[in-house]
């Protein structure tokens, strides 16, 4: 994977994946939790508080002693990190001139005090930053990480920290019947016909969507085709049942849906290799649909076709892994 395309991978630190900023040595001007907030940082030129200008990011006070500031982030989904984005959006005269990234792979749920003593390892050395810029840096490491530490030199403000990579879940939890299409279990989107309004990755995100903006919605089709999304499963799996959720999609839900699977070992680029798991079935708007699947062949991908278009809140594919896709 090149340094130019790592930003297409999931953000392992995102709050939407239940990431958390566990600690910051200073957050006087703007709180640390903003670092992993979904969406781009916002800015209101007229917004001032009792501590000064209000920023949608993490900002520390001006240091008057040696040292540097830092924040510790627990990844919502542990994994292999391919690159990071240190976004200084809206910070111009108060951004840190330099930063570095360290990481650790920790068992269990260490607290902030334990992480302060952890054996942190460098991922991105001390690099120069630009103000009001999404500063992107590739990472060359094949190891699995659970936490990252953002160091800024010597102080200043960072709007967002994005940690892009590939999910590597704990294999101890990949047992029994699980959602083999869940991003947090190692699945991901392999292909999508259209994502005009929102990302298809939303349909395999944890939890339930809070509104229509939390699912996958395509543009209105004006031809004779249909839209579709393909999910690479967490590993080859025997599928037991699926859930196709159209919650919050009322006047823009698909009229019908069809689910097909790719038998393990088949070519994912060959559409004719997919076999039908759920025939074309009418859907209701704003409804969680559940369907039993009678399939005895392990699948490595599933493809959801919606007819002719429309929004899907969540896709759950419950099954049993026969061979996990990740160790």
From TrEMBL:
Pathway connected to this protein: Nitrogen metabolism; (S)-allantoin degradation; (S)-ureidoglycolate from allantoate (aminidohydrolase route): step 1/1
Keywords linked to the UniProt accession: Hydrolase, Purine metabolism
Annotated catalysed reactions: allantoate + H2O = (S)-ureidoglycolate + urea
Cited Pfam families: Allantoicase (PF03561)
Assigned EC number: 3.5.3.4
Biological process, per Gene Ontology: allantoin catabolic process; purine nucleobase metabolic process
GO molecular function: allantoicase activity
The keyword Glycoprotein appears for this protein: no
Allantoicase domain segment(s): 19-167, 186-321
Domain of life of the native organism: Bacteria
PANTHER family in UniProt: ALLANTOICASE, INACTIVE ALLANTOICASE-RELATED
HAMAP family named among the record's database cross-references: Allantoicase (MF_00813)
Similarity field: Belongs to the allantoicase family.
Name listed for the protein in its UniProt record: Probable allantoicase
Encoding gene per record: alc
């Amino acid at each position: 994977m090149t340094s130019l395309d790592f930003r297409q991978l999931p953000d392992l630190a995102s709050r939407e994946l239940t990431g958390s900023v566990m600690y910051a040595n200073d957050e006087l001007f703007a709180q640390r939790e903003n670092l992993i907030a979904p969406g781009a940082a916002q800015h209101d030129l007229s917004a001032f508080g009792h501590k000064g200008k209000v920023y949608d990011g993490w900002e520390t006070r001006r240091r008057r002693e040696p040292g540097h500031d830092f924040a510790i982030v627990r990844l919502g989904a542990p994994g292999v990190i391919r690159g990071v984005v240190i976004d200084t959006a809206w910070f111009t005269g108060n951004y840190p001139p330099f930063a570095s990234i360290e990481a650790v792979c920790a068992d269990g749920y260490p607290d902030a005090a334990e992480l302060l003593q952890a054996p942190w390892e460098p991922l991105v050395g001390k690099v120069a930053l630009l103000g009001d810029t999404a500063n992107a840096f590739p990472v060359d490491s094949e190891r699995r990480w659970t936490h990252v530490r953002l160091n800024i030199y010597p102080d200043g403000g960072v709007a967002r920290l994005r940690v892009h990579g590939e999910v590597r879940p704990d294999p101890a939890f990949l047992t029994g019947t699980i959602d083999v299409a869940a991003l947090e279990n190692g699945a991901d989107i392999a292909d999508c016909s259209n994502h005009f309004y929102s990302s298809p990755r939303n349909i395999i995100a944890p939890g339930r969507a809070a509104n229509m903006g939390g699912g996958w919605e395509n543009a209105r089709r004006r031809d004779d085709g249909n839209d579709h999304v393909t999910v690479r499963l967490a590993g080859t799996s025997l599928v037991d049942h699926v859930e196709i959720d159209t919650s919050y999609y009322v006047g823009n839900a698909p009229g019908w849906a069809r689910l097909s699977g790719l038998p393990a070992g088949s070519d994912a680029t060959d559409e004719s290799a997919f076999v039908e798991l759920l025939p074309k079935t009418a859907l209701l708007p704003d409804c969680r649909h559940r369907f039993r699947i009678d399939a005895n062949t392990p699948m490595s991908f599933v493809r959801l076709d919606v007819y002719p278009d429309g929004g899907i809140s969540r896709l759950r594919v419950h099954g049993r892994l026969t061979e996990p896709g990740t160790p």
